[in-house]
Amino acid sequence: MNWFTRVRNSLPFSAKRTTDKDLWVKCPGCQQMVFAQEYEDNAYVCPRCDHHGRIGADERLRQLLDAGYEVLPIPEVKEDPLKFRDTAKYTDRLKKARAANPHKDAFLVGSGAIEGKSAVVGVQDFGFMGGSMGMAVGTAFCQGAERALKRRCPYVVVTAAGGARMQEGILSLMQMPKATVMTRRLKEAGLPYIVLLTDPTTGGVTASYAMLGDIHIAEPGALIGFAGQRVIQDTIREQLPDGFQRAEYLHKHGMVDMVVHRHELKDTLATVLDYLAPAEAA
Q1: Residues 66, 72, 73, 75: what is their CA dihedral angle, to the nearest 10 degrees?
Q2: Between helices 175-188 and 135-151, what is the axis angle to 10°?
Q3: Given CB 3.0 to 4.6 Å as the disulfide criterion, which of 99, 165, 208, 258 pairs with 132?
Q4: Distance (Å, rounded) from C-alpha 113 to C-alpha 66?
Q5: Which pTM value belongs to this model?
């Protein structure tokens, strides 16, 4: 035993303290360390560079809906219908995703009100397998639309996805027309369908219900597109402009109606619902 070990063991050092959560987070935008509690209190927006961090479905519902909202159960669907396997079984990937997330799949629906105005809000969670659109997501989206039709109130959908879920093959792509039909039913019923585009919204989700809203709102800096920037650049053999596929670029070119800071989203949605909501909605 060396002298340092003897001295250390003879001194009344307290045991090393541990904590269940990290005290600091690294901002993906400015790469600066931010106190975790400050970051959370600021709605997961960096207080230094204003980067809008990705948040889960539960937190998004809490931020947008008034207290007392109802969370609809995630619908049951047939899992692994294709018995898919790549480097791992699809069933194993689902188990891993569910162990790391509070819900069974990537789309959660809340039914309640926004500043006292009735609304159903569907949220896509990028934290669950990249928010990928499979049968569970498509069915949950339609469930939310059905609830809005039943309540005669607007349907607000928050998108965040890497696209269709490849492990479900053509069945995942079938969710695109399925969701599109539901947006048509909302339109025929005279009910507003509002889309909030968050980072990232890409692939088959962009090609279907993400771009079919009556109003499209985006968070600052959100990546929004169908194919990846590198794929497009390699295809057309041209240099893409700065900010291509970002919310501000799409707003400038007419694909997004407004870019709204997260702190102002709830008030903005309430104002939009004031203009668009049918008189029958309570």
Answers
A1: -140
A2: 10
A3: 165
A4: 6
A5: 0.90
Burial of 186 (0-12, 13-18, 19+ CB in 10 A): buried
Give the pLDDT confidence score for residue 277 in this predicted structure.
79
Q: How many CB atoms lie within 10 A of CB 25?
A: 19
Domain ranges of the chain: 16-51, 55-276
pLDDT the model gives residue 1: 58
Q: Residue 114 corresponds to which tokens in the numbers above?
A: 């926004």
If phi > 0 it is left, if psi is from -120 to 50 it is alpha, else beta; for residue 122 that is beta
Q: Rounded to an integer, what distance in angstroms lies between the CA atom of residue 106 and that of residue 93?
A: 13
81 cis-preceded (ω within 30 degrees of 0): no
CATH for 55-276? 3.90.226.10
Residues of the chain with pLDDT under 50: 281-282
Amino acid at 82: L
Pairing verdict, β 107-114 and 70-71? antiparallel
Q: Identify the pLDDT of residue 229.
A: 82
